[in-house]
């Protein structure tokens, strides 16, 4: 990679990180592209070199999330059993969501966002080997296969996140997820 490519990556990351900070402090709808450019110390034209709109920053969140999950899974998910690892994996997902700007999450979690159903995303597929281990060991004995279990868990947690958004973050989502996952995982 040449120095120009490295600088371009740094500039894009700077715009992304600045955007996230502004979204956290002001709310997604209250931040303009001009605000982002000014805070990142780049021109509005530079912003448009990397992103077509603020919504494109949302798309980058998925790419970054997948990288975060690759690192998390690569370090080994803690737990003495497959079910405990599944729970810890899903709680990591909930904590990842909880640490994003709330207004940003409210924008992501809507029925128009088809990125949630995109097949092959690392965030979802990295859970599969843990489920496979549970099925192979007989710890998970239900009638669902790996992909059905994965979908069941993610649908449940996305529903919880949507509910959390409807209630303006008015409850501890980690605590609620922990409680619900205990119930859900018992059924596997």
Tell me what you see in this structure:
The chain is mainly α and 188 residues long. It folds into two domains: 1-51, Arc Repressor Mutant, subunit A (Orthogonal Bundle), CATH 1.10.10; 55-186, Tetracycline Repressor, domain 2 (Orthogonal Bundle). The protein has ten helices and no strands. Helix 5 (82-98) packs antiparallel against helix 10 (173-186) and helix 9 (146-166) runs antiparallel to helix 10. The longest helix has 24 residues, at 3-26. The protein is globular. The termini are far apart.
Short description:
The chain has 188 residues and is an all-alpha fold.
How would you describe this structure in keywords?
188 residues; mainly alpha; Arc Repressor Mutant, subunit A; Tetracycline Repressor, domain 2; 2 domains; 10 helices; 71% helix
Strand and helix layout:
Blueprint (H helix, E strand, L loop, with lengths): L2 H24 L6 H8 L3 H7 L3 H21 L7 H17 L3 H7 L13 H4 L2 H10 L8 H21 L6 H14 L2
Helix pairs in contact: 1-2, 5-8, 5-10, 8-9, 9-10
CATH topological fold name of the largest domain: Tetracycline Repressor, domain 2
**First CA to last CA: what distance?**
47 Å
| Residue windows where pLDDT falls under 50 for at least 5 positions | none
Mean of all residue-level pLDDT scores = 90
Quaternary structure of the protein: single chain
Helix content: over 70%
The number of domains is 2
Q: Would you report the number of β strands?
A: 0
- Main sheet attributes: strand count, strand direction, barrel closure: none
Structural class: mainly alpha
CATH architecture of the largest domain: Orthogonal Bundle
Overall morphology: globular
User: SSE order, as H and E?
Assistant: HHHHHHHHHH
Gyration radius, rounded: 19 Å
Q: Using the coordinates above, name the CATH class of the largest domain.
A: Mainly Alpha
What is the overall number of helices?
10
Strand content: under 5%
């Amino acid at each position: 990679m040449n120095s120009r490519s490295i600088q371009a990556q740094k500039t894009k990351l700077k715009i992304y990180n600045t955007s996230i900070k502004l979204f956290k402090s002001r709310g997604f709808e209250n931040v303009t592209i001009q605000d982002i450019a000014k805070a990142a110390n780049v021109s509005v034209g530079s912003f448009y070199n990397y992103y077509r709109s603020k919504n494109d920053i949302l798309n980058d969140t998925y790419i970054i999330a997948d990288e975060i999950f690759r690192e998390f899974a690569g370090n080994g998910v803690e737990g003495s059993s497959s079910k405990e690892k599944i729970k810890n994996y899903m709680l990591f997902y909930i904590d990842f969501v909880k640490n994003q700007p709330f207004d940003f999450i409210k924008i992501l979690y809507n029925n128009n966002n088809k990125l949630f159903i995109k097949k092959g995303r690392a965030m979802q597929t990295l859970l599969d080997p843990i489920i496979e281990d549970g099925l192979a060991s007989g710890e998970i004995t239900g009638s669902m296969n790996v992909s059905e279990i994965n979908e069941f868990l993610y649908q449940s947690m996305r529903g919880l996140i949507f509910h959390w958004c409807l209630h303006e973050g008015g409850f501890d989502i980690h605590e609620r997820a922990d409680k619900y996952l205990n119930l859900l995982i018992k059924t596997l």
